[in-house]
């Protein structure tokens, strides 16, 4: 999953960035409203963690511009503005959820996972296909009921494919799940992780579509 962190406080930003990357999310961090607006116009994200008190452009303005473009990306507001009227204003502007600073990191992660599940249209956060079962909330993986350990990047490749059987994802789309702006992308990274997944989960689970990308076939 690729997230955009919009936070101007360096100490908070560093802490949240480390937390999210430890959870194997790819994260881009910007520190003002103009940079956030540019990122949201030029990149695809699975979720935005948005502060409101930003330089150059307020977070609510960023949010309103985003929704005016009919983007449905989940937005979690994280701010010190804890008055009821301000929370209502943020939600009415198009935010999906709201967490007040200072927040517990476990709560932040739980809210992020819940929004990602909701955006995927899942009441229950479980995917199952040909004996392979994954739980995005816990990142547990089993094959025919037996637990399998995946690396964070193997998970990042597997989850979007297994979530959408029959849909072809290009190598570039999968690469976006692995890296953020600060990482270089090796030319064969996706192939390496898919090879590892096939060894652990079965050779036929992920199929090549020559010249296009990869898919998990429909059951």
UniProtKB/TrEMBL annotation:
OmpR/PhoB-type domain segment(s): 124-218
4-aspartylphosphate: residues carrying this PTM: 51
CDD domains: trans_reg_C (cd00383)
Positions in coiled-coil regions: none
Presence of the UniProt keyword Phosphoprotein in the record: yes
GO molecular function, one term: phosphorelay response regulator activity
Cellular compartments per GO CC: cytosol; protein-DNA complex
Any one of the GO BP annotations: regulation of DNA-templated transcription
Source domain of life: Bacteria
UniProt KW keywords: DNA-binding, Phosphoprotein, Transcription, Transcription regulation, Two-component regulatory system
Record InterPro entries: CheY-like_superfamily, OmpR/PhoB-type_DNA-bd, Sig_transdc_resp-reg_receiver, WalR-like, WH-like_DNA-bd_sf
This protein's record includes keyword Transcription: yes
DNA-binding region: 124-218
One matching Pfam family: Trans_reg_C
Family matches, as PANTHER family: REGULATOR OF RPOS (PTHR48111), TRANSCRIPTIONAL REGULATORY PROTEIN TCTD (PTHR48111:SF67)
Protein name: Transcriptional regulatory protein QseB
Source organism (scientific name): Hydrogenophaga pseudoflava (Pseudomonas carboxydoflava)
Lineage: Bacteria, Pseudomonadati, Pseudomonadota, Betaproteobacteria, Burkholderiales
């Amino acid at each position: 999953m690729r997230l955009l962190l919009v936070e101007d406080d360096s100490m908070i930003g560093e802490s949240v960035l480390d937390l999210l990357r430890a959870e194997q999310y790819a994260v881009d961090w910007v520190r003002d409203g103009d940079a956030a607006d540019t990122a949201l116009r030029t990149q695809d994200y699975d979720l935005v963690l948005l502060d409101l008190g930003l330089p150059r452009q307020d977070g609510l303005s960023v949010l309103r511009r985003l929704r005016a473009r009919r983007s449905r990306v989940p937005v979690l507001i994280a701010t010190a503005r804890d008055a009821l009227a301000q929370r209502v204003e943020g939600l009415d502007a198009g935010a999906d959820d709201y967490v007040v600073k200072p927040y517990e990191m476990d709560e932040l992660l739980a809210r992020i996972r819940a929004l990602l599940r909701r955006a995927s249209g899942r009441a229950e956060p479980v995917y199952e296909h040909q004996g392979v079962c994954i739980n995005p909330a816990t990142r547990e993986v089993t094959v025919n009921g037996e637990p399998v350990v995946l690396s964070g990047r193997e998970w990042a490749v597997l989850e979007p494919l297994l979530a959408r059987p029959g849909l072809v994802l290009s190598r570039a789309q999968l690469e976006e799940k692995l890296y953020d702006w600060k990482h270089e992308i090796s030319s064969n990274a996706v192939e390496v992780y898919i090879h590892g997944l096939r060894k652990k989960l079965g050779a036929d689970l992920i199929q090549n579509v020559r010249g296009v990308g990869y898919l998990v076939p429909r059951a």
